Amino acid sequence: KVLDASTLSFGTRIRWFAICFIAGIACSVLGTALLWLPKGIKLFAVFYTLGNIAALASTCFLMGPVKQLKAMFEPKRLIATIVMLLFLVLTLCAVFWWNKKGLAVLFCILQSLAMTWYSLSYIPFARDAVIKCFSSCL
């Protein structure tokens, strides 16, 4: 039952969701601020990636980790999940192994887009609305 969200009270689940989500936003903002320091690209990539992981982990407190993982890998989210996780890893590879600042920034942008697309899958018809909006603009 430890991996089930129902073992925590509703108030506790909401509180920890908010803490993780706010910590995620704070890490992302801090990472962005650190980008402008000399050699701040590594800190930027790490904090930005940690921010996205914390924001993603926050929903574990609402759903429970097992249910969260099952939902992440449902067919309608599978590609978005894989792409999102791939860009999280690629961001860190770009700064620590390849030492490519431009790639790190690009991967952070793609991280955000992938995370947004993944998140939209939880809102009924949201992806369809986004596709329709962009297709009408083009």
Automatic annotation (TrEMBL):
Pfam families assigned: Got1
Function: May be involved in fusion of retrograde transport vesicles derived from an endocytic compartment with the Golgi complex.
Cell location: Membrane
Organism: Colius striatus (Speckled mousebird)
One GO CC annotation: membrane
Record keyword Metal-binding present: no
Family the UniProt entry places it in: Belongs to the SFT2 family.
Transmembrane segments: 16-37, 43-66, 78-98, 104-125
Keyword Membrane: yes
Membrane topology: Multi-pass membrane protein
Keywords on record: Membrane, Protein transport, Transmembrane, Transmembrane helix, Transport
Name recorded for this polypeptide: Vesicle transport protein
Record GO biological process: protein transport; vesicle-mediated transport
Record InterPro entries: Vesicle_transpt_Got1/SFT2, Vesicle_transpt_SFT2
